[in-house]
Design goal:
With 231 residues, the chain is of the alpha/beta class. The protein has one domain: Aldolase class I (TIM Barrel), CATH 3.20.20. Helix content is 34%, strand content 19%. The protein contains nine helices and eight strands. It has an eight-stranded parallel beta sheet with strand order 7-6-5-4-3-2-1-8. α2 packs parallel to α3. The longest helix is centred in the C-terminal third of the chain and has 16 residues.
Length: 231
């Protein structure tokens, strides 16, 4: 596969990202700048079609409008039926990495190849209820894997971080290490500051944080304290 642009984690250093969907949508540009100034490493951007999950989220044109405001990586969690339909627009919008939904990407090799042809990095995302066993075959095809810690789009029924994902992180980390791969292992969905530390200790290398970050008045101090706990 042709290589995508690099935004890989530094060995031994966890990356902290911000899930912009949790920001104030009436002032996304200001929120993006505020979050970058707090010291994050990347932006996690949800792109939902309203079919694969009940939520609808950022269209590609929103990403394109925000792209000139920061040089930080845009890492897209794409939850959509027929995800390949969205790839050209996401590439044009400046996405750096796209997580393909395992549940809606039957031809993962071909779709990951297309992601890289368009100049992006390819990832795979597993919903909380998707068996982890299939991840092993996908790992050699991708640059990153995202394990969801709650049920996407399920409203109040699924907003809390589910501790089941900690064992899934350990399992995925064992697979990555056994295969000798440099795959970035991410966990997202309902992460609180304490569960970020637990996910890191379980083997995650990147942590996109949503509401737990945006509700903190001292975002910079929160990130600094979190990094200190994950040294």
């Amino acid at each position: 596969m042709p290589p995508g642009p690099s935004s890989s984690p530094v060995p031994g250093k966890v990356r902290i990202g911000a899930a912009l969907f949790n920001a104030d949508h009436t002032r996304l540009g200001d929120e993006l700048r505020r979050t970058e100034a707090a010291g994050i490493d990347f932006f996690h951007l949800d792109v939902f079609d309203g079919y694969a999950v009940p939520d609808q989220a950022f269209p590609a044109r929103t990403l394109k409008a925000l792209r000139p405001l920061t040089a930080l990586p845009f890492e897209v969690h794409l939850s959509a039926r027929e995800p390949e339909r969205f790839l050209p627009a996401l590439a044009d919008a400046g996405a750096d990495l796209v997580f393909l939904p395992a549940e809606h990407t039957p031809l993962l090799y071909e779709t990951a190849y297309r992601v890289r042809e368009l100049g992006m990095r390819a990832g795979v995302c597993l919903a909380l209820g998707t068996h982890l066993e299939g991840l092993g075959a996908a790992l050699p095809l991708v640059d990153a894997a995202l394990l969801l810690g709650r049920v996407t789009g399920e409203g109040s029924r699924g907003r809390d971080f589910n501790r089941i994902v900690l064992e899934r992180i350990r399992g995925a980390r064992a697979m990555i290490d056994r295969l000798g791969l440099a795959v970035d292992l991410q966990a997202a969905g309902g992460l609180e500051l304490e569960s970020c530390v637990e996910a890191y200790l379980a083997g995650a290398t990147s942590l996109p944080i949503g509401a737990a970050l945006y509700r903190e008045p001292d975002m910079r101090g929160t990130i600094d304290r979190l990094r200190e706990r994950m040294r």
